[in-house]
Design goal:
Length: 260
């Protein structure tokens, strides 16, 4: 599933391609992909700006919003003309410039929401992990009030939005914190280290254009390169870079824990 860095790369790339572009038509090829909570489709609406909260991409329109979640296998591919593949194409936004923004999704879990206000979709989404409001103090206040495994806490989008298995594993490994360690047992200095590493690893992944393990693509159909720098995620049965022991993976309550 694309996480914060992948979604931010997509949003940033789209800025120069779709801002101040007017929507000519929207074609939907899977009935669940495009969810219209407004009376009409946003035809003739101008795309004023883009934003992101966690794993959600937001298009600010003249009147309403398009809120996009890629889920597991969603891809947003921008093309300059109508010459594009229709395999796994679930929705297509045609612009008056003659270009298209296509939503591909082999698993069909991704969604495009057309809403008049953001709260209806984002009311349960927590603070963005790269937001200026996500401070060390704010992080520790949330962390120490919980009594649950640290990885489970970080995966819960109602607290911190944007983190998933890839970057949580990398952040915990770099911080030397076991994924099953209870949040209220983490020392203050380790919590601060984890906070700094969350910011560091997410920003590095954005610089590397995201992590392509399977389905993630940039808006031009390219691959990210951050997978070449992962220290622990997807390295089961390989030697640990830190201690040379073999990395083991277990499944527990639907979460993947990597021992370090």
């Amino acid at each position: 599933m694309p996480e914060l860095p992948e979604v931010e790369v997509i949003r940033t790339e789209l800025n120069s391609k779709i801002i101040n572009q007017k929507i000519k038509n929207i074609s939907n090829f899977w009935h669940k992909t495009f969810v219209n909570y407004c009376q009409e489709l946003p035809i003739n609406d101008n795309i004023i700006n883009t934003d992101r909260i966690g794993k959600y991409i937001i298009f600010q329109l003249e009147n309403n919003y398009l809120v996009i979640h890629l889920r597991m296998t969603g891809q947003l591919i921008f093309t300059e003309n109508s010459n594009f593949s229709t395999k796994h194409l679930r929705s297509s936004i045609e612009l008056f410039s003659g270009s298209y923004l296509n939503f591909y999704d082999s698993r069909k879990f991704g969604r495009i929401y057309h809403v008049s206000e953001l709260k209806s979709i984002l009311s349960n989404v927590g603070i963005d992990a790269l937001s200026e409001d996500f401070t060390n103090k704010h992080f520790k206040n949330m962390l120490f009030k919980q009594k649950r495994g640290i990885k489970s806490f970080l995966l819960d989008q109602k607290y911190i939005a944007g983190l998933g298995n890839i970057y949580i594993d990398e952040c915990l490994f770099l911080s030397g914190i076991h994924p099953k360690k209870l949040t209220n047992e983490i020392k203050n200095k380790d919590a601060e280290k984890l906070y700094l590493n969350i910011k560091k690893i997410l920003n590095l992944a954005i610089e590397n254009m995201g992590t392509t393990i399977s389905d993630y693509r940039t808006t031009g159909g390219g691959f990210g390169t951050n997978q070449n720098f992962l220290k622990v995620y997807n390295r089961e049965n390989e030697e640990c870079f830190r201690c040379n022991s073999i990395i083991q993976k277990i499944n527990n309550e639907a979460f993947v824990y990597i021992f370090i």
